[in-house]
Write a structure and sequence with these properties.
Blueprint: H1 11-18, H2 22-26, H3 34-49, H4 55-64, H5 71-81
Length: about 110
């Protein structure tokens, strides 16, 4: 929508008219590093074998295999891939047995 070689309207003005920050217009996204792509492939293989692994356990597993990996990197890549550990989550809609209404029955 922006014509950088427009004869009368500057690029900055065109960005302002569109409500687009100039930094967004000039931004060039960086490609994903190849080592991250290779590591994501390994994370996917381990996740298929152990879907219960979260980022902590996954990082621990990789360190045991001899990879020097940080948990934050594993967490970032797992989040970017849409992976999360499969485990039983708390059922918050079920009432706790000690709480609730007390029923008083009157005999007739």
């Amino acid at each position: 929508m922006i014509e950088p070689a427009h004869p009368r309207i500057a690029t900055a003005r065109q960005c302002r008219l569109l409500g687009l920050p100039r930094s967004t217009y000039y931004h060039r996204p960086q490609p994903t590093p190849t080592d991250d792509l290779a590591f994501m492939r390994q994370i996917d293989e381990v996740y298929l074998a152990h879907p219960e692994f979260g980022s902590r356990q996954m990082a621990r597993w990789f360190r045991r295999q001899g990879y020097g990996v940080n948990r934050k990197r594993v967490r970032r890549l797992m989040r970017w891939m849409g992976l999360e550990a499969i485990y039983q989550k708390p059922n918050l809609s079920r009432r706790h047995p000690g709480t609730g209404c007390i029923r008083i029955c009157y005999g007739s």
